[in-house]
Write a structure and sequence with these properties.
The chain has 15 helices and 11 strands. The protein is of the alpha+beta class.
Length: 368
C-alpha cells in the first residue's frame, strides 16, 4: 500500500502500531533479533530508550557548539585544497566532510580518516550485479569482507581505546550499555549509512541547485545562517535523499489519507512516498513543485517536511546534516569563478531507496 499525502504519511510515521520495514529491516530482524539490534531497526520502548540516551550527541545546541569548529576547519581545508587545484569532485569533498563529522560523533577516530572513507564508500556503494546463486554468494562474500575490513581497521581500534578511556561519543555509550564488539560494529554501520552516505548526497544536491540558480546562490551568501538553513531545507523538500519510507502495520489501522479514511490491514507493508508527500499542496502550499524558500509551512512541521522522516524514527542527525551543508557551502560558494563543470550522474541505491550523485565536477574559471 502506498501513501503519497502529507497527512497520511505523518499519521503512519507517528503511529505506535507500525514497525520499521525499510533498509532491509525484516532481514536484519531475522538474523540479529530484537536484542541490541541497531537503533534504526528497533521499535517501541527499546528504540525510545536508545534514542533518548544518544540524543545528547545530536541535539542542535550540541551541533552548533561542540562540532562547529570541526565542520568549519574541515570545510576550510577542503576548500583550500580545491582552490589550489582549481578543479575537484564535489561528491568526494562532501564525503570527506561527512566522514570527518560522523566519525567524531560516533567515535571512529583511531584510524586514517581518508582510508576509512574509501572503505565505507565501497561498502555502501557496492553494486548489486548478476542473478542466481553464484552472484548472490559473491555479493554476500564481498559484503562480509568489507564489513570485516571496516571492523578490523576502524571499529576495533576505536573500541579498544574507549574501553580504557571512555569519551563523549556513541561507541563509549554502547560499551557502557554492555554491547558486544559485533553489536557495536552493526551500530557503527548504521550511523555510517545515515551520517555519511545521506549527508554526502544532500550536500551535492544542494550545491547543484545553488550553482544552477545565481539568484538563489546570492541569497544564500547574503543571508544569515538561519536563511541558509531555510534555503537548504527547501532544496531538501523538493529533493529528499531517501524517497521511500517503509513501515509494517502490527494491527488493523485507519489513517487519514488526505482524501478520506484509508484502511490498512494488519501485517500490511506501507510505502510512504516522501517526494509526493513533500509536494502535497495541503502542506507545501501553492506551486509545490517550485523551489521557494519563502513558502509557508503547516504548524509544527519542519521546513523540509518529510525529508528527515517523522515520528520515532525521524533522523536524529538532521541538525548535523544541515549545519555541515550550511557551513561548507557558505565557504565553497564564495570562491571566485566557481562553476559546475560537469553535472552529477544519478542512480538509486536499492537498499535505502535513495539517490546517489557521482561525478559532480566543480572548477574555478581563470580570473581576467
Amino acid at each position: 500500500m502506498r501513501i503519497d499525502s502529507f497527512a497520511g504519511a505523518r499519521e503512519v510515521l507517528r503511529c505506535p502500531d507500525v514497525r520499521q520495514a525499510g533498509f532491509n529491516a525484516e532481514l536484519v530482524a531475522r538474523f540479529i533479533g530484537p536484542a541490541h539490534a541497531p537503533v534504526l531497526y528497533q521499535d517501541g520502548e527499546p528504540h525510545q530508550k536508545q534514542r533518548s540516551a544518544t540524543a545528547r550527541f545530536f541535539a542542535p545546541r550540541v551541533v552548533a557548539t561542540r562540532y562547529r569548529e570541526l565542520i568549519e576547519r574541515t570545510s576550510h581545508e577542503l576548500v583550500a585544497r580545491f582552490r589550489a587545484a582549481g578543479r575537484g569532485r564535489l561528491d568526494d569533498m562532501s564525503l570527506e566532510l561527512a566522514v570527518a563529522v560522523a566519525a567524531d560523533i560516533v567515535g571512529l577516530t583511531e584510524s586514517d580518516r581518508a582510508r576509512m572513507a574509501v572503505r565505507l564508500n565501497r561498502f555502501f556503494s557496492a553494486p548489486v550485479s548478476g542473478h542466481g546463486t553464484i552472484a548472490t554468494l559473491r555479493q554476500a562474500l564481498l559484503g562480509q569482507w568489507r564489513m570485516l575490513s571496516f571492523h578490523w581497521f576502524d571499529v576495533r581500534p576505536a573500541i579498544r581505546v574507549r574501553r580504557r578511556t571512555p569519551r563523549e561519543d556513541v561507541i563509549s555509550h554502547l560499551i557502557q550499555e554492555g554491547y558486544s564488539d559485533r553489536e557495536i560494529l552493526t551500530e557503527c554501520l548504521t550511523y555510517g549509512a545515515a551520517g555519511m552516505a545521506t549527508t554526502r548526497e544532500f550536500i551535492v544536491m544542494a550545491a547543484w541547485r545553488l550553482l544552477e540558480r545565481e539568484d538563489l546562490r546570492a541569497r544564500f551568501l547574503q543571508g544569515d545562517e538561519q536563511d541558509r538553513m531555510t534555503i537548504l531545507e527547501e532544496v531538501l523538500r523538493l529533493e529528499p535523499v531517501v524517497s521511500t519510507l517503509k513501515r509494517r502495520a502490527t494491527r488493523d489501522l485507519v489513517v487519514d489519507s488526505g482524501a478520506g479514511p484509508m484502511a490498512i490491514a494488519a501485517n500490511s507493508l506501507v510505502e510512504i512516498e516522501v517526494g509526493a508527500a513533500n509536494r502535497d499542496p495541503s502542506a507545501a502550499g501553492p506551486c509545490p513543485h517550485q523551489l521557494d524558500p519563502d513558502r509557508a509551512r503547516p504548524a509544527k512541521a519542519s521546513a523540509s517536511l518529510m525529508s528527515f522522516g517523522d515520528g520515532p524514527h525521524r533522523c536524529p542527525g538532521a541538525a548535523v546534516a544541515l549545519h555541515e551543508a550550511a557551513i561548507f557551502l557558505d565557504q565553497l560558494l564564495r570562491v571566485p569563478g566557481l562553476h559546475l563543470e560537469q553535472v552529477p550522474a544519478m542512480t538509486i541505491n536499492p537498499v535505502s531507496s535513495g539517490y546517489e550523485l557521482r561525478g559532480a565536477v566543480i572548477a574555478v574559471a581563470p580570473q581576467r
